[in-house]
Amino acid sequence: MLERLLRLDYKLFFHINNVWSHPVLDAFVPWLREPFVWAPLYLFLLMFVTMNYGWRGLWWAAFFLITFGLADQSSLFIKDTVGRLRPCRDPLIQHFVRLLVVHCPGSGSFTSSHAANHFALGTFCFLTFRHISKWFAASFFVWAAVICYAQVYVGVHYPLDVTGGGLLGIFLGVMSAGVFQRRIRLEPELST
């Protein structure tokens, strides 16, 4: 069963990385992974929530950052434990991988930290913002999925890596948002 799953993982990787490629995507997709593209969104959220929700917003910001840290460190721990080679580092297939970034990271491949981080934050935002707008809140999942796809497209992760990272992130986002929603919640400050 595991062998079949890995075979499917390789096949899907090569479709995303090679077959479903396009020069416009080659120029655009690598930028999606970069912090200067996604960090402004998260900084805006931190500022927006703290400015509009007072002390609750400060707690939201703290939980947001804790969620990010937990996802990142958990993913790094799993990477070190599993030790799966990235496609761009695997000597058996690296010559067939289209690497669209400057260098191939030396860390393990499973789980993707990008996937874990963005799905953790996306889940946290969805669960804490859905009372405001379900469409806005759901857009965080689309954002996380696009970044995960980019990880495979550029050749640094397999689909199973981003799936595992995404599931880890969703789990941590649910746990973090659950504690936040039970204890604090985002409710506008009442002005006196």
UniProtKB/TrEMBL annotation:
<keyword id="KW-0812">Transmembrane</keyword>
<feature type="transmembrane region" description="Helical">
    <location>
        <begin position="135"/>
        <end position="156"/>
    </location>
</feature>
<keyword id="KW-0472">Membrane</keyword>
<feature type="domain" description="Phosphatidic acid phosphatase type 2/haloperoxidase">
    <location>
        <begin position="61"/>
        <end position="177"/>
    </location>
</feature>
<protein>
    <submittedName>
        <fullName>Phosphatase PAP2 family protein</fullName>
    </submittedName>
</protein>
<dbReference type="InterPro" id="IPR000326">
    <property type="entry name" value="PAP2/HPO"/>
</dbReference>
<feature type="transmembrane region" description="Helical">
    <location>
        <begin position="162"/>
        <end position="180"/>
    </location>
</feature>
<keyword id="KW-1133">Transmembrane helix</keyword>
<dbReference type="InterPro" id="IPR036938">
    <property type="entry name" value="PAP2/HPO_sf"/>
</dbReference>
<dbReference type="Pfam" id="PF01569">
    <property type="entry name" value="PAP2"/>
</dbReference>
<feature type="transmembrane region" description="Helical">
    <location>
        <begin position="36"/>
        <end position="53"/>
    </location>
</feature>
